[in-house]
Write a structure and sequence with these properties.
Number of helices: 9
Largest sheet: 7 strands, mixed
Distance between the termini: 33 Å
Shape: globular
Strand content: 15-25%
Order of helices and strands: HEEHHEHEHEHEHEHEHE
Radius of gyration: 17 Å
Length: 246
């Protein structure tokens, strides 16, 4: 079981590093083509003008965006959006900003937002690294979700994995003190890498004692998907890694 079973392949899943002068530029996705359904196209066209946030290289006023002061949760790569919509619906006290470049997924989440009447979900269809770097102020996020990113299981592709030290350092800088970074995967080897990378970030600390293995129990706010439930019945593991900003 993997994110490829849970949802169509999310393009916000691989940090390809490209040289730009002497400083490497990190990207958070590998763009893949996907077929849009009629409903996804319709909701993308009608809802994005209402809940979409255009990328601009300037700081985003999150309170003004939602029209209130509330905790802001940032999600990288929401796939088809089922989990995102469920979390936003069950936690109206928080505001959620999802970043995804995959148009079918964006259209799907737009549809769910419309059907559920959600007022606390916004979407940016752009590279998450550039959004974090340019639009999100330091020390401003209450939490970050990265659920079931592409595991890139072949060893030669591990460098494409999303959870790498440069991105984690950027994420940590955008978290407010006490804010959390929550990663989840159903690939044990990737889970171990996630734990190692987050443990190596000086601004973060694990919410679970390392003597207990370092992995966290699934919080109530992260719902089980139908694919995850099927995998668990078959004996597949799922690992949650939750760190907090010091």
């Amino acid at each position: 079981m993997s994110d490829t079973a849970d949802q169509p392949q999310s393009p916000l899943s691989a940090p390809a590093q490209e040289a730009s002068g002497t400083h490497p530029a990190i990207r958070s996705f590998v763009l893949r083509q996907g077929r849009m359904s009629n409903a996804q196209t319709r909701y993308l066209e009608t809802m994005m003008p209402r809940i979409g946030v255009p990328y601009r290289p300037e700081r985003l006023d999150l309170d003004a965006l939602y029209g209130r002061h509330a905790p802001h949760i940032f999600e990288i790569g929401f796939g088809m959006g089922e989990t995102s919509a469920t979390i936003a619906e069950t936690h109206p006290e928080n505001d959620y900003l999802g970043v995804e470049v995959h148009s079918p997924g964006v259209g799907s989440l737009c549809k769910l937002v419309a059907e559920k009447g959600l007022s606390n979900q916004r979407i940016i269809q752009h590279d998450a690294v550039e959004v974090l770097r340019d639009m999100i102020a330091p020390d401003s996020l209450a939490g970050v979700h990265i659920f079931f990113p592409d595991p890139w299981p072949k060893k030669r592709h591990h460098k494409r994995r999303l959870v790498q030290p440069p991105l984690v350092a950027l994420l940590a800088s955008r978290l407010a003190p006490g804010g959390y970074l929550h990663c989840a995967t159903d690939w044990e080897e990737y889970a171990i890498q996630m734990l190692e990378v987050l443990s190596g970030e000086p601004l973060l600390e694990n919410t679970v004692d390392s003597r207990q293995g370092g992995f966290a129990p699934r919080p109530d706010y992260r719902p089980l998907t139908k694919f995850e439930q099927r995998g668990l019945r078959l004996g597949h593991g799922v690992w949650d890694v939750i760190f907090r900003r010091k």
